Amino acid sequence: MAKDGISVGIIGFGTVGTGAARILLENADLLRQRLGFPVRLKRIADIDTKKDRGITLPKGMLRADANEVLNDPEIDIVAELIGGTRPARDFIVGAIRNKKHVVTANKALLAIEGNAIFKEALRNGVQVGFEASVAGGIPIIKVIREGLIANRILSIYGIINGTSNYILTKMTDEGLEFDRALKEAQRLGYAEADPTFDIEGIDSAHKLTILASLAYGIPLSFDKVYKEGITRITPQDIEFAGELGYKIKLLAIAKCADKKVELRVHPTMLPKDYLISKVDGVFNAIYVEGDAVGDTLYYGRGAGDMPTGSAVVSDICDIAKNMMSNAKGTPVFFTKTALRVKDITEIESMYYFRFSALDKPGVLSKISGILGKNNISIASVIQKGRRVGEAVPLVILTHGAKEKDILKAIAGIDRLPVLAAPTRYIRVEGPETG
């Protein structure tokens, strides 16, 4: 460590790396004023040293070999910003073993292999900052670790994937089919050529894994998160949800009660008047309920070079302050705990059903009979159109029910000869409908 300041190296000069470098260079004087010492960007490593990123670097700063960052004894903090699992993990572990602190935006790597990475950091006495791994420029990691440290976190609801939120917004506002909305998102650069991680809920599950570990002290548990994407949502579902007073969002949900934690990502119907329901386009929002503070909501840009770069530099500055004051920093966040992650079949929720039912007498009574046998009560019903002998949509909103009972009921209902297609269902969050 330089006596008069901290030196930083960046591995990965893509979107986030460019944003972080720009902030470190252009706001160097501001950071020095606020910290009381300089934070110097010394080296950037990227295999592409020729691409124009729209930023002017000091001569010799950009190199092709990551080892020039990892093995430089003057570099105190390494920011891994290449993404993916390999070679990112190797770079992070290499930096840790060289006694360098690490900052990363790599939510996928942390969600899947973070337990081992944090143990390695603990053994080597270094810190790992990961504010940029969830919700871009929204400082939600700091909020949960520090701002809400006095609270038991009762629940977290997050719109934490801008791509899916943009697609659902286009479908809601313009009545587009899913495929058209996805192509529009790809055209504008909001969705990748392969959008699987976004539209299937995997990216949101990576982020929820990190938030839940912070909130509940459990090991990172990506494999235990229930994941369901938005590919089967139709304009018809969105229209019916609107008639019932709801909007459909891809929601990441964590709840804790009775020593059990729910971890799930899926399309969710939320009351239209909820603040989080009004979050549209590529924006993110996270609702956190604490036992002391009550309801809180955090909103902002969940991606992009400068918002995410801002989060990266925030971690760099936090670690730098700890280094200059010889503080150990925030410890590894998970602890030994008696909490158990629930299987999705154990949850309770309200549910939206859409049946494609033949327009015949007695159909509703048959369906409601099966629901009743499985302890599911009906809150409201919508039936559109009359085409005697033909299939018409029949929509039912239930009161609170257990997922395992819902699955049994659907299996029975789908065997009825009066149904023309498999039953569609969406989980509903909000106050009970009376």
How do the helices and strands line up, and which of them pair or pack?
Elements (H helix, E strand, L loop, with lengths): L5 E6 L3 H12 L1 H8 L3 E7 L16 E2 L3 H4 L6 E4 L7 H10 L3 E4 L2 H18 L3 E2 L10 H8 L5 E7 L2 H13 L3 H10 L8 H4 L2 H15 L9 E2 L7 H9 L2 E12 L2 E12 L11 E8 L3 E8 L3 H20 L15 E2 L6 E11 L4 H11 L4 E6 L7 E8 L2 E2 H11 L5 E10 L6
Parallel strand pairs: 1-2, 1-4, 2-3, 4-5, 5-6, 8-10, 10-13, 10-18
Antiparallel strand pairs: 7-9, 7-11, 9-10, 11-12, 14-16, 14-17, 14-18, 15-16
Helix pairs in contact: 1-12, 4-5, 5-10, 7-8, 13-14
Structural notes for this entry:
The protein folds into three domains: about 5-135 and about 305-325, Rossmann fold (3-Layer(aba) Sandwich); about 140-300, Dihydrodipicolinate Reductase, domain 2, CATH 3.30.360.10; about 345-430, ACT domain (Alpha-Beta Plaits), CATH 3.30.70.260. It has helices at about 15-25, 30-35, 65-70, 90-95, 105-125, 140-145, 160-175, 180-185, 195-200, 200-215, 235-245, 305-325, 365-375, 405-415, and strands at about 5-10, 40-45, 60-65, 75-80, 100-105, 130, 155-160, 225, 245-255, 260-270, 285-290, 295-300, 340, 350-360, 380-385, 390-400, 400, 420-430. About 35% of the residues lie in helices and about 25% in strands. With about 425 residues, the chain is α/β, with parallel strands linked by helices. The chain is built from 14 helices and 18 strands. Strands 7, 8, 9, 10, 11, 12, 13, 14, 15, 16, 17 and 18 form a twelve-stranded mixed sheet that branches. The protein has a six-stranded parallel sheet with strand order 3-2-1-4-5-6, sandwiched between helices. A hairpin with a 3-residue loop joins strand 11 and strand 12.
